[in-house]
Design goal:
heterodimer, A: 326 residues, alpha/beta, 8-stranded mixed β-sheet, 4-stranded antiparallel β-sheet, 12 strands, 34% helix, B: 295 residues, 6-stranded mixed β-sheet, globular
Chain lengths: 326, 295
């Protein structure tokens, strides 16, 4: 049994434009699983539904359909102490650590608050645990009395991670945790998150738009487009040989030191998608990607491709996945 | 990209030993944002200045047309544009230079556009001010076509908020092109955009550069972008250029310790020799090294 199992999850919102109301399908029939101690990357562009997916897993959005099971238990059915227990085990780290810290609270208080809410009554115990957490993420225990503005972006992200670790979680949903950071700081946070994973057996759902970061951080990856998962697989294999044209185009679009300097790779890699991502209130019929797809065929405009296994451990939602893999 | 401009193309811009300081409470202790930077750009050539936050790359870009914010001032050096010294230019010449011969595009198109005017009006404004065409409105439509904005006749009546980020950046580029600038300064032009949209904008810039043999000064933190766009690269750290050279050479064979460390820190799509579980090891910085400046 996987730690987290998401099955046919859909999340919808009502979008109001004047008097008209339309359904915005942010997440559509997404299924994925995260094993204990594993990191699963979720990549996609703005509007792909990756953030909504993460928030729905945390119980912050109510699913329109489908199920989310944590350790085999349906999350939406949890109440009382079972719900508190779920929240202890699933924590989150956000993109902007400054926005997610109260500027008027010392970081010791901010971390202590989490401990208090989760039932650590003794003040002395909270202080000791806070000091321990700060050291765990590479900060000095003495920093507990300082305020968020006294820290750099990277240090703030460490504080965000320390706070997420306070409850001893087994799964952390990290939404773009390094995208606001400079490269040299980004690598420090990635290495910190990897060390914590190795030491504590943490599982990550790592949401990011940066493919190279996901490649570095995650063993497995799921690619999202317009609310749907279009491809999943081991990141090493998937990035090497994509089985969905959207993944292929994404990889081609990313400016990359190695590929852009290699003339043979650069030749092969020039796929420039046309237009913008359509609105999630107006998803194209058939395959949602077909209007921008460089490999689209007539069938794509009418028939929605289902996510299916095309290689062992690799799934693609493209009618022509086999041709891409040739 | 960036074609292969012959090295005898005329020089557009020459920056020599440029120093940009910021006044602080103590007049004897200014902050040295840019501390002796030298580089040049030829016609039709893309030159990149790469660095992390606070390296001085954006201040270098702004100083070229004397656009420094309040407390900033040029403390030394020279900037010559097509042979003419910019730092001592009078106000009238400077107005012609800004937007006329040097144009800028910035990271966040939404904050560079005026929300209460239509995009067509804003593009035409540049044409009106610099009197580059008899009919500014018609010229705006032509520019919108040039930058690949679909249906310009209708789109010119749109307001910025009605457009996607990629389209807004195309509007910015149309405005920048209104006066046929010789040099386009692009400060993180695609950082706020999704990768597939970024790829479109990069194609557009490359195409426009080929057609008008513009020089492009690319300011970025993204080495991948440099590899795709630039011919020459200058790596900045703490106000200094620490390494310069042809982009390919610097990226594949960096000499300076800072460039080496930075390049090792960049996550790669095709990492060398994978580590355990297929996730590659990266980084010369240990995870706790405090290389950041604390505010």
């Amino acid at each position: 049994m996987a730690l987290l199992e998401v099955d046919q999850l859909s999340v919808q919102f009502i979008a109001r434009h004047g008097r008209s109301r339309r359904i915005l399908r942010a997440v559509e029939q997404v299924s994925l699983a995260v094993e204990a101690g594993e990191s699963l990357g979720v990549v996609g562009e703005s509007g792909s539904g990756k953030t909504t997916l993460g928030r729905a897993i945390l119980g912050l959005w109510k699913p329109a359909a489908g199920s989310i099971r944590f350790r085999g238990q349906e999350v939406s059915g949890l109440r009382g102490s079972a719900l508190a227990d779920f929240r202890r085990h699933v924590q989150m780290v956000f993109q902007d650590p400054f926005d997610s810290l109260n500027p008027r609270m010392s970081i010791g208080t901010a971390i202590g608050e989490v401990l208090a809410i989760h039932g650590m009554k003794s003040r002395a115990a909270r202080l000791a645990r806070t000091a321990e957490l700060l050291e765990l993420v590479g900060l000095q225990a003495g920093y507990a009395d300082r305020y968020p503005h006294e820290f750099s972006g990277g240090q703030r992200q460490r504080i965000g991670i320390a706070r997420a670790l306070a409850t001893g979680p087994s799964l952390i949903v990290a939404d773009e945790p390094v995208s606001a950071l400079d490269v040299s700081v980004q690598v420090q946070i990635i290495n910190l998150m990897r060390r914590l994973q190795a030491e504590m057996g943490l599982a990550y759902l790592f949401i990011a738009h940066d493919l190279a970061v996901v490649r570095t951080m995650c063993r497995r990856v799921a690619v999202m487009y317009l609310g749907r998962v279009v491809e999943t697989g081991l990141s090493a294999e998937l990035f090497d040989k994509p089985a969905h044209p959207y993944t292929e185009a994404l990889l081609s679009a990313v400016p990359d030191v190695d590929a852009d300097l290699d003339p043979t790779l650069a030749q092969k890699r020039r796929i420039v998608l046309k237009g913008d991502v359509p609105s999630a209130t107006d998803v194209p019929p058939g395959c949602p990607f077909h209007p921008r797809c460089h490999r689209a065929q007539p069938v794509c405009a009418v028939q929605l491709p289902v996510l299916r296994e095309v290689l062992p451990g690799r799934c693609s939602a493209c009618h022509f996945a086999e041709e891409l893999l040739k | 990209m960036s074609g292969e401009p012959s090295s005898d193309a005329p020089e557009l811009l020459a920056v020599r030993d440029l120093k940009v300081y910021f006044r602080t409470a103590d007049p004897l202790q200014p902050v040295k944002a840019v501390d002796g930077v030298t580089f040049s750009i030829r016609e039709g050539e893309t030159v990149a200045v790469v660095g992390e936050s606070g390296s001085g790359k954006s201040m270098t870009a702004l100083a070229l047309a004397r656009l420094l914010p309040g407390a900033g001032y040029v403390a030394g050096g020279s900037v010559t544009f097509e042979g003419e010294e910019v730092l001592t230019m009078d106000a009238r010449r400077l107005r012609e230079l800004r937007g006329g011969r040097i144009a800028y595009i910035f990271q966040e198109p939404a904050t560079s556009l005026n929300p209460v005017f239509t995009v067509g009006w804003q593009i035409a404004e540049a044409v009106r001010v610099h009197r580059t065409a008899p009919d500014p409105e018609r010229e705006a439509v032509r520019l919108m076509q040039l930058v690949g904005l679909p249906d310009p006749e209708r789109r010119r009546k749109s307001y910025p908020h009605e457009m996607s980020g990629g389209m807004q950046q195309r509007v910015m580029i149309a405005m920048a092109l209104a006066c046929k600038p010789r040099l386009l300064v692009a400060d993180e032009p695609t950082t706020a955009l999704d990768v597939t949209i970024q790829a479109q904008i990069l194609e557009l810039l490359a195409d426009l550069q080929r057609r008008f043999s513009m020089g492009i000064l690319l300011i970025t933190h993204n080495f991948g972008l440099v590899a795709r766009m630039a011919k020459f690269i200058h790596v900045m750290n703490a106000g200094h250029v620490v390494e310069s050279g042809p982009a390919r050479e610097v990226l594949t064979n960096p000499r300076h310790a800072y460039t080496k460390a930075l390049l090792r820190a960049v996550p790669r799509l095709r990492p060398p020799a994978g580590g355990a579980g297929g996730t590659p090891a990266i980084g010369a910085w240990t995870e706790t090294a405090g290389s950041e400046r604390t505010p």
